[in-house]
Structures are given as structure tokens and as C-alpha cells.
Task: structure prediction
Amino acid sequence: MKKLFTLASLLVLASLVLSACGGGKSTASDLLGAIKERGYIMVSTDPNYEPQSFLNTNGKRPADTKCPADALTTAELQGFDVDVAHKIGDGLGVETCFATPAWDIITAGNWSDKWDVSVGSMTILPDRQKVLDFSVPYYGTPAVVAVKADSTFASLDELAGKALCAGTSTTYETWLNGGDLGPGILIYSKAPAGVVAVPLETDQECAQSLAAGREDFVGYVTAVTVVDANIAAGMPVKQLGDAVYNEVLAAAFDKSSTLSSATLLAEVDKILTALHADGTLSGLSTQWFGKDLTQGLIK
Result:
């Protein structure tokens, strides 16, 4: 009898602990409700995309964070996208946590509920809209080509037949391959004739590899903000010519989410619209990029 009583007591205690820790099944009817129930929003972003998002080497993980052990906190990342994601979390009244999956996994959709939203400078493209829903844009960036600082290239045409690097599954790779970027992107120049695309996991890796002496490509395509940051960091690179196209960037939501993300998308739209109206996004853009890239956007 004593053993039976002890076992019963342990089972009751265990159920109380699970209930207190939120271990019971969520009763939320949509993703927004689940986020508020757990107290944090999980955001996917790139930890190697300075100045949009990158590791804060001086950041210390808060002891009282609600973020899962395998997620990063706002103290451990920094950058424009990180600050925007933090503002979204604040607007929802929850903590912001970060997952860092590969870019091609994010753009492919079907996230298996591993994160709630992407705030990672994603361009709105027709193919992506088949699997993802997008918020109102929060900023836009010109895309440019960069080459080694000591190269003799003077124009884009001189790169004909050469190899250029781009992040895999990015608009930069699509542009190099002559793919369709959709009606939301203003294209100023086509890719050089016969150019060969060399994809790496992120376009920042292209810059880092070129600076480290990699020789199977002569330059890379990325946002002008990234090239500016590369130059400011002392990388031996330079921008070649003017912007080749301009894109608008938004938060993205998985159409295949188990719980509907419609109300979450609506709330994020409200938050971003308010951040545009009160000048917060302009201020963050100026802080991180030295210019306001949040104006004149069309979804």
C-alpha cells in the first residue's frame, strides 16, 4: 500500500509541475494566441548578415529569459533586423527569441512550426508568395556588385563571362541566373553576359571568402548596406558601378503553419505601420545604415 501511495503521490506532483511550467497542451486557437500564451515569439534571422543581423560578442544571455536553450536572445544578436524583430515582440507584449536556420530552408516554407516569423530582410517574390505570406514592407535596399578593392574592373560589362558569388536562394542568385524577380523589383541592369553564379550559404560568406583570398569568383552580389559594412570593417572590397536593382523587404509567415498566422500577420502589419508613422523605422535605418531606407515602399 505504501508503494502504491508513493507512486500516486509522485504522479500528482508531476502533473502539477507540468501545469505550472506550461507543459500542458496549448489551448490557443491561432498562432498569435499561442505566442502570447508562451510569452515569446520565435523569429528566424541570419546571424552573419551585418549590419542587418549579427552576433553580439559582448552580449550576455539574460538569466530570466523565456527563450528556449537552443534559441538566441536579443542580447546575443544585434543589427537592424534584430531591432525590428525586438520592436515587433514589444508590440505583441512578448519576448523576442531567434532561430538561425539556413536561408534556403526559410524561403522554402513548410517550417514545421519551428519558428513563427522571418524578420530577415526577405524580398517579396512571386515564387515565395506561393508558400509564404508577407507583411507590409519595413525597408528596401539597392542590390550592388562588389569586387576586390585592387581589381581593375571599371564597369559591370567587364564582368562578362566571369564568376560572381551570391547567397543561395537569394534574389542575388536569381538575378545572376537571369531568373524572374517579379513586378515588385525595379531592375536597372541585367547580369553581365555569360556570368557564372557561385552560390554560398549567405552572401556575407561571399564577401568573407573573397577577402580571405578565394579565387574561383571575382566579386559578389548583395545589398548595398552589406557592402558598406564590409568596407567599414576593413575588407579589401569596393562597389562596382551603380545599383543593379532595388527590392522591398518584409516579414514572412509560413502558409503551412499548424495554427493560423492570419491574426499574427494582421498585428505585425499594425506594428510595422505604426513604426513607420512615428519615425522609429527611419531612426533605426539611419542608426544602422547611415541613411533612411524605409521610405517609398510598395508591397
Remarks:
- The two ends are 69 Å apart (CA to CA).
- The chain has two domains: 30-139+249-289, 141-247.
- The mean pLDDT is 91.
- The CA atoms of residues 145 and 221 lie 5 Å apart.
